[in-house]
Amino acid sequence: MIDTFIFGGTFDPVHCGHMILAESILGVLEKDAQIVFVPNKEPPHRRLPLASARERIDMLNLALQGRPNFCVDDIEVKKGGVSYSIQTLMSYRKMYGPSFSLNFIVGLDAWQSFSGWHQSDQIARHSNLIVYSRPGQYTFDGSSSRAFGFQFKEKITELSDFNRGCLFYLSLKSLRISSSAVRLAARRRKDLSSMVNSDVAEYIARHRLYS
Predict the structure, then answer these.
(1) pLDDT tens across 123-137, in order?
(2) Cα-Cα-Cα-Cα dihedral sign, residues 107, 165, 139, 143
(3) Which of 3, 74, 153, 179 is the most buried (most CB within 10 A)?
(4) Pairing state of beta strands 166-171 and 128-133?
């Protein structure tokens, strides 16, 4: 198995910032890896998505066309109910066994509230953690990783040497797009070409999403 990264979220909708993040991770690794986009059914820490699960999966598939290292998994949608990341990570670890590198991607804002996550103290037993920050966010403090069972590693290029239990930090300079900004622009019928894939923009317009 190649290194696998679980990228969870509502993806309501998927936007160019998500693609920049995924491509940045692949770029710094300098090796083959796959990033799996896992849309939530019912996110535990935010309101329900406005687009349906089917619509969000459709938009993800459109955005990921021509990117062989990116794919969509509807594991949380099929399960139904509240989507807990620990359950998804446990499922992947059970499917592929102990000897492959499983990694979970979260934003700095999510990391700052990590103690409120369901079984947050168990995630290190199943995967590594990649914490990324957007421009203007607070500085990351690696010392807090020990409280959740993670060992902080400064060089993300070493990720493949560790199958689980390590935390890596990635600072991004050009991740200013948000799903809420896309929804607002769609509601105001503005041009979305700088924010989302052209096929996604067409899908939003055709299905009158967020209007």
Answers:
(1) 999 999 999 886 665
(2) positive
(3) 179
(4) parallel
pLDDT above 90 (res 158): no
CATH number, domain 3-175, options 3.40.30.10, 3.40.50.10140, 3.40.50.620, 3.40.50.2300: 3.40.50.620
As a whole number of angstroms, the distance between CA 119 and CA 148 comes to 10
> Could you tell me which residues are beta bridge partners of residue 106?
131
Q: Average pLDDT of 87-110?
A: 93
The residues spanned by each domain of the chain are: 3-175
Q: What is the DSSP string of 103-119?
A: EEEEEHHHHHTGGGSTT
Residue with tokens 């598939």: 61
- Which residues are within 8 A (CB) of 118 and not within 5 positions of it... i.e. 6 or more apart? 44, 84, 85, 86
Q: How many C-beta atoms surround the C-beta of residue 161 within 10 A?
A: 10
